[in-house]
Amino acid sequence: MFAVVKTGGKQYKVAQGDVIQVEKLDVEEGKSIDLNEIMMICNDGKVSVGAPFVAGAKIVAEVVSQSRTGKLIIFKKKRRQNYRRKNHHRQWFTVLKITEIKAK
After folding, report:
1. For the purposes of burial, counting CB atoms within 10 Å of the CB of 46, is it exposed (0-12), middle (13-18) or buried (19 or more)?
2. CA 41 to chain centre
3. Cα(52)–Cα(23) distance, rounded to whole angstroms?
């Protein structure tokens, strides 16, 4: 059994026991979270596709950690103008472990 879930503006294909990295969610580590925006569920070859979401379906996930990605360097330059700017960015993310997929 697997499902396609939408969170943080992205879609993820998940199965029970998977660990995924998603955009930051405001949930403490160790807590459980319900993901309700399920776009598709496949259960033993039987496919349910939502329009846009499958009614009555949800995914229960446990928050493993909240962390930040590695440093991304942003460098801007204009040639022959003595213009150089260097910045960096670290994006927050949440690691989820899928514990249960509930279909209607």
Report:
1. exposed
2. 17
3. 21
State whether residue 90 is helix, strand or coil: coil
Residue ranges making up the domain that contains 94: 2-102
Provide the number of structural domains found in the chain: 1
Supply 91's token pair. 């994006």
Question: Given this model, what pLDDT does residue 104 score?
Answer: 76
Q: What angle do CA 65, 67, 73 make, to 5 degrees?
A: 160
pLDDT in tens, the chain (104 residues): 999 999 999 999 999 999 999 999 999 999 999 999 999 999 988 999 999 999 999 999 999 999 999 999 999 999 999 999 999 999 999 999 999 999 87
How does DSSP classify residue 24? -
DSSP 30-79: T-EEEE--EEEEEETTEEEE-SSS-TT-EEEEEEEEEEE---EEEEEEET
